[in-house]
Structures are given as structure tokens and as C-alpha cells.
Amino acid sequence: MDNFNIDALPQTVQKGFRFTLGATTSLLESLQDAQKREENLKRLTTDFETLAEEWVAQGEVTEQEARFFVDTLVQQATGTQPASTATVTTTASSVTNSSLHQDVKALTEEVMTLRKKVEQLQSEKN
After folding, report:
1. What is each CA distance from 84 to 7, 63, 66, 68, 71, in whole angstroms?
2. Which residues are CB-contacts of 81 (< 8 A; sequence separation ≥ 6)?
3. Are 41 and 78 in contact (CB under 8 A)?
4. Global pTM?
5. Exposed/middle/buried for 26, CB within 10 Å: 0-12, 13-18, 19+?
């Protein structure tokens, strides 16, 4: 704990969030594409560090897209114009709280499954 830097904590938490978001996105893509699934599983055992960096980058992009989408929805709901001069037209379907809750629960379960697989692969490697 001597090397612990409290100033770096927000960046560490954000990187962890982006890693999880990127890993979840990759997992969802892998579920849809068998070839990509095999490729990612192979990379988990051989090149995890590079794969983790890619997940962080992918998570950052996904985070930015989600923020933009939420900002747009809020702006539409409040009737305010976007800060930029560009006009954004989006179509959003109605999302119920139970639907959102189910989606979050499903994603959480998928992340937990992925975490277990990573831990299993790491223990097998050691």
C-alpha cells in the first residue's frame, strides 16, 4: 500500500469501468459470431494484456456513444437544443423500468460469467 496513489483512484475506477464495458461488448459480439468467439477465447489464453487494452478502448468508445445518446434523449425530453450546431435526429423506443432492469441484470450475469472464465483460464495457466 506504500505505492498507492489516491489521486489515481478515479482514473483506475474509470479504466475498470471501461474494461468491463468493452469486455461486455466483446462478449455480446462473440455470442453473435462463432468465429469471433473462438478468436477471443484463443486470445484470452495467449495475449490477455493486449486484449484487455482493446477492451478498455472499446469501452471508452461505447461510453462516449452512450453519453451522447442519453444527452440527446434528455435534450429531447426537456426541449433544449444540443450545445453543438449539428441537428441530431434519433428514434428511441419506449423502455420500461422492468425491461431496463432485465437488460442490466442480463449484462451483469454475462460479465460475471466472463470473469469466471478469465479466472479459470488464469488458474489453468498457472
Report:
1. 32, 19, 17, 12, 12
2. 75
3. no
4. 0.46
5. buried
How does DSSP classify residue 6?
G
Angle at which helix 9-32 crosses helix 48-78, to 10 degrees, equals 90
Amino acid occupying residue 80? T
Indicate if the pLDDT at residue 92 is higher than 50: no
Instruction: Out of 14-18, 61-65, 79-83, pick the least confident.
Output: 79-83
Cβ pair 118, 49 in contact under 8 A: no
Separation CA 117–CA 41 (nearest Å):
9
* Residue type (1 letter), 95: V
